[in-house]
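Team,

Forwarding the record for the chain on the shared tracking sheet. I've put the sequence and predicted structure together so nobody has to dig through attachments.
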Amino acid sequence: MKIGLNERELEVAEGLRLRALVAAQRPEADVWIVNGAAVSEDVVLQAGDEVMLIERGAVPAAAELEAVMAARHTPGVHAKMKGACVGIAG
């Protein structure tokens, strides 16, 4: 079955549990997000689930951060934001 892992598609076995995915893909991750909600329990993943595994205090790779931001804002909005300049006064 296919799931999303940190904004990339990944083929995994049916009935895979979250803790097994963490152990295999990113054991240092201490924040687990499944379908937009932070979870701490070991859940059975379903086809189409979107999983984010994050290590607190770590800076993600540029490509991973770019993918996450584009997914969060939609590619069109993200492109506009990347080309914008922001000024802060006060």
